[in-house]
């Protein structure tokens, strides 16, 4: 087990994550997620911990992708109090070695979530452009024939 951890802040994530590579990966993840039986995705319902005294919530969202050999947990804590004037939704992704369980990296999840959402919308519009009278609901991970 190594004690070295990679920590990537927002600017580092923005520097290395590119839509050109991200959009095809998001497309594949939609397909894998929609093929529940063979897709290899295990994604339980998120854990929610209310922090009522401070108008906040802690969410913990684990996911394992057998096809990608990826084990990741997103942790986010939106706070909606009047004192939180920025209403930021800070989040972090914890990336584990799926074979050993060792923590490999901690990454800024806010930038990744924003880019993932934009890429998902890109997939949706791409699917609308290529469909031929076949209903394609990319948002839910359901693709038309072929």
Helix content: 25-40%
Q: Note the run of SSEs as H and E.
A: EHHEEEEEEH
Structural class by sheet pairing and helices: alpha+beta
Number of helices: 3
Q: Please identify the oligomeric state.
A: single chain
Organism: Desmophyllum pertusum
Family: Belongs to the ornithine cyclodeaminase/mu-crystallin family.
Subunit structure: Homodimer. Binds the thyroid hormone triiodothyronine (T3); T3 binding inhibits enzymatic activity.
GO molecular function: hormone binding; pyrroline-2-carboxylate reductase activity; thiomorpholine-carboxylate dehydrogenase activity
Structure summarized in a few sentences:
By secondary structure, the chain is an alpha+beta fold. It has 3 helices and 7 strands, in the order E-H-H-E-E-E-E-E-E-H.
Description:
The chain is globular and about 45 Å long. Strands 1, 2, 3, 4, 5, 6 and 7 form a 7-stranded mixed sheet that branches. The protein is α+β, with helices and mostly antiparallel strands and 146 residues long. Residues 135-146 have low confidence and may be disordered. The termini are far apart. Strand 3 and strand 4 (56-65) form a beta hairpin. The protein has helices spanning 10-16, 19-34, 109-130; strands spanning 6-8, 41-42, 47-51, 56-65, 70-76, 91-97, 103-108. It has 3 helices and 7 strands, in the order E-H-H-E-E-E-E-E-E-H. The longest helix is centred in the last third of the chain and has 22 residues, at 109-130. Helix 2 crosses helix 3. It is 31% helix and 27% strand.
